Amino acid sequence: MTTRAGFVALIGEPNAGKSTLTNRMVGAKVSIVTHKVQTTRARIRGVALEGDAQIVFVDTPGLFEPKRRLDRAMVAAAWGGAADADITVLLVEAQRGITPGVETILEGLAEIGKGRTIALAINKIDRVKSEALLSLTEALNERFDFAQTFMISAEKGHGVQALREWLAGQLPEGPWLYPEDQIADLPLRMIAAEMTREKLTLRLHQELPYQLTVETESWEERKDGSARVDQIIYVMRDGHKGIVLGNKGSTIKAISQASREELSEFLGRKVHLFLQVKVRENWLNEAERYSEMGLDFRDGKA
Ligand SMILES: Nc1nc2c(ncn2[C@@H]2O[C@H](COP(=O)(O)OP(=O)(O)OP(=O)(O)O)[C@@H](O)[C@H]2O)c(=O)[nH]1
Question: Where do the segments described as G5 lie (predicted)?
């Protein structure tokens, strides 16, 4: 059987519906990821199967960071996720139309979008009248040459299957990126990483810039029914390390405790959580990150 596989980057303003759409696309098995985690920052949002195709949805963290001016390098890094993806889907909220935020994305697309497969999905169509949809579609397509336009309601499910089938058909032929039996495992690690990330964000507020990521390094099921989970918090600069650790390690301790409790409650069993802070200057480097997640890479990809 010929299989297809690849990455689909979902871009759009905060609240555009990226999480809701991913939920719909990946189905019940993986949707737990985004139900639990409100604002997804994980690099991989979920994996969907459609016929013979495996669609890996990836995120573009930091593309929008209100209150923070992004420098060029950061913007470039944030766009990296989209640039490396096989397909990019821009989600625009039907009732909000071309906001200044959408303008910014369109400008970004003009720079990186040439020769790439970029689709437009107008979301929340349940909120507007069809005439408004048509003029918005026209206006957006005048601004960028989208490969295809979809009208969807991620929440109600309208148009989602058509988008999914189209994405599957656009992906390059190749072996699946995740072995089938690993797909079920993936979300749990992601959930765990996301929990820790959320605790970090809550605790550090704006103190730390967004370039911080959490990865679940290992997950070990123990005979006594508990789980040992090792995570690494990657920061970009040495100085950030101290902030995460806190005075005499007080911050990381509190974060670890809060995250462990939540994970424990979520799993319904005991969890031993071990956190480590490491500096990784270019953590957005796709190839490195993906290969650490155990992914195989085809030649020339990421
Ligand atoms: N009416 C309506 N609401 C929707 C639809 N899709 C998403 N929403 C709502 O829009 C809000 C934001 O959706 P999310 O999926 O969290 O948006 P997001 O883009 O993932 O947001 P961030 O992760 O914060 O960037 C939620 O309250 C959703 O329920 C839709 O098709 N129709």
Answer: 152-154
Q: Residue positions in the annotated binding site?
A: 12-19, 59-63, 123-126
Q: Structural domain of residue 225, as residue ranges?
A: 185-292
Q: How many helices (H) and strands (E) does the chain have?
A: 11, 9
CATH code, 59:
3.40.50.300
Let me know whether 172 and 215 are in one domain: no
Helix (H) or strand (E) holding 217: strand 212-221
179-198 pLDDT per residue, tens? 665 555 456 787 788 889 88
Structural domains in the chain (count): 2
Q: How remote is the CA of residue 189 from the centroid of ligand 1, in Å?
A: 23
pLDDT digits (tens, 9 = 90+) for 134-145: 999 999 999 999
Q: Using the Cα atoms of residue 113, residue 166, residue 37 and residue 15 in order, give the sign of their dihedral.
A: positive
Max Cα–Cα distance, the chain, nearest Å? 61
